[in-house]
Give the backbone structure.
Amino acid sequence: KAARQAVKRTEHNKGIKKDIKAALKAFKNNPSKETLAKAQSEYDKAVKKDLMKKNTASRTVSRLSHKVKAL
């Protein structure tokens, strides 16, 4: 049973990570407040689901927002 649960969790986590990567790629292609908001939302979801530590996500979002402010 634990093995089946692990497979389900792994698939679910891969989906969330894929969403983060897609949002980050969209931001890098077009850095704007809208794409920043989407990326930030995805990072927050990952933290909420314990996929990523809070400070890691916060640091990454902070770096992204610095790039938007530099424009």
Observations:
- The chain has a mean pLDDT of 94.
- The CA atoms of residues 4 and 10 lie 10 Å apart.
- The helical segments are 2-29, 33-48, 54-70.
